[in-house]
């Protein structure tokens, strides 16, 4: 088992390259970190979600309960490299949705609390919305890179990583390419 | 796996995404159930609904009413923002009781303001929760006539109502503030 795991990570390193691995680890860590405060303070996060004034009232509680856990799950899966296609897709989608939500509110002049890393229980931190948009844009760079690597590179990573060991690695080589 | 690579990836992305979303929301719902302060699955998160007391009364005060309470000196206004924001400009009849670090400012309230006094808390911004948190804390401390002026500072200034500058010790009366003074 231990040998299998070593192979698994070695294979990740070789197949992904340093850039993709780093991107994955950074995004994973950021999403896990971002989820913790929101998981601890669902009510404050629900207010933040309400403040964005995008979702209908009926979906606010559900979002406040589930979204932080989704961020945690995605973060963990990104870190350990399981469910690669799924986690990369969701992380990119989430960042784009957050980006859109913030740009939308910036455009209509609503300067609200971001609710990105800390829910509003601690009060406003005074940073302008434009900074949050910029920061989200920064996170989009590794996410889009991973997305590209995962879905567009012909010899990119395939497989959800469930099977470990060298035999799996060989199966990834597509004949004739 | 015999599927064509791209289709295979999209298929995997789809089912993995669904699996992760279902997993996360299932954990989220279960975690919520296990909390003592669990959220209702459908709730009204508007400030007016959030700010109703146990008896069902709303703690939200209108600008007109707040204006009357201030000009007639019927209520104590509490500015829940930081001392820096307060010094840059605040409602004329306000004392500064920052919500951040409330414990250190509590002596401006406790024993100074009678429990049956009208209190209006405010901060700044559509979504600022400082005034709301302060009001709820005061309510739990026994103050029963606490009101919240939502987005108070901005609306007060926009209405051209009397403001002051300076911190708790040094007040400078003024009609207008642009926030650039220090």
Structure in a nutshell:
In chain A, 72% of the residues lie in helices and 0% in strands. In chain A, helix 2 crosses helix 3 and helix 3 packs across helix 4.
How would you describe the overall organization of this protein?
The complex is a heterodimer of chains A (177) and B (182). In chain A, 72% of the residues lie in helices and 0% in strands. Chain A has 6 helices and no strands. The two termini of chain A are 32 Å apart. The C terminus of chain A is likely disordered. Chain B is an alpha/beta fold. Chain B folds into 2 domains: 43 residues, no CATH class; 128 residues, Rhodanese-like domain (Oxidized Rhodanese, domain 1). Chain B contains 7 helices and 7 strands; from the N terminus they run αααβαββαβαβαββ. The N and C termini of chain B lie far apart (68 Å). At the A-B interface, α2, α3 and α4 of A face α1 of B.
CATH superfamily of the largest domain in chain B, please?
Rhodanese-like domain
What is the number of E strands of chain B? 7
**In the CATH scheme, what's the topology name of the largest domain in chain B?**
Oxidized Rhodanese, domain 1
What is the number of independent domains of chain A? 1
Overall pLDDT level of chain B: 84
What structural class is derived from the secondary structure elements of chain B? alpha/beta
Mean pLDDT of chain A: 80
Q: Report Rg of chain B.
A: 23 Å
Large-scale geometry of chain A:
elongated
Helix content of chain B: 25-40%
Question: Largest interface: which pair?
Answer: A-B, 49 and 44 residues
Structural domains of chain B: how many = 2
Strand content of chain A: under 5%
Query: Kindly, what is the distance between the CA atoms of the first and last residues of chain A, rounded to a whole number of angstroms?
Result: 32 Å
Strand portion of chain B, in percent?
A: 5-15%
- Return residue spans of chain B where pLDDT drops below 50 for at least 5 consecutive residues: 175-182
């Amino acid at each position: 088992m231990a040998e299998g795991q070593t192979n698994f990570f070695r294979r990740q390193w070789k197949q992904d390259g340093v850039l993709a691995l780093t991107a994955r680890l950074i995004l994973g860590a950021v999403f896990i970190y971002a989820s913790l405060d929101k998981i601890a303070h669902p009510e404050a996060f629900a207010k933040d979600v309400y403040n964005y004034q995008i979702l209908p009232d009926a979906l606010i509680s559900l979002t406040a309960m589930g979204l932080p856990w989704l961020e945690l799950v995605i973060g963990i899966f990104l870190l350990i490299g399981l469910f690669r296609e799924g986690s990369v897709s969701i992380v990119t989608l989430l960042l784009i949705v957050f980006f859109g939500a913030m740009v939308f509110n910036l455009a209509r002049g609503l300067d609200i609390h971001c609710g990105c890393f800390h829910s509003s229980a601690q009060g406003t931190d005074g940073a302008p919305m434009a900074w949050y948009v910029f920061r989200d844009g920064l996170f989009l760079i590794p996410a889009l890179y991973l997305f590209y690597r995962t879905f567009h590179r012909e010899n990119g990573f395939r497989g959800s990583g469930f099977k470990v060991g060298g035999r799996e690695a060989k199966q990834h080589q597509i004949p004739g390419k | 796996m015999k599927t064509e690579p791209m289709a295979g990836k999209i298929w995997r992305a789809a089912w993995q995404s669904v699996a992760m979303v279902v997993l996360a929301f299932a954990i989220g719902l279960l975690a919520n159930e296990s909390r003592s302060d669990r959220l209702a699955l459908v709730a009204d998160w508007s400030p007016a609904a959030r700010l109703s007391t146990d008896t069902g009364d709303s703690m939200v005060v209108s600008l007109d009413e707040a204006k009357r309470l201030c000009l007639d000196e019927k209520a104590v206004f509490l500015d829940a923002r930081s001392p820096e924001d307060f010094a840059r400009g605040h409602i004329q009849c306000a004392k500064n009781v920052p919500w951040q670090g409330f414990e250190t400012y509590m002596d401006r309230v406790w024993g100074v303001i009678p429990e049956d006094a009208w209190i209006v808390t405010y901060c700044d911004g559509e979504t600022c929760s400082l005034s709301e948190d302060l009001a709820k804390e005061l309510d739990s401390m026994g103050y029963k006539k606490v009101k919240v002026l939502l987005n108070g500072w901005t609306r007060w200034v926009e209405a051209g109502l009397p403001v002051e500058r300076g911190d708790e010790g040094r007040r400078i009366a003024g009609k207008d503030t642009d926030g650039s003074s220090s």
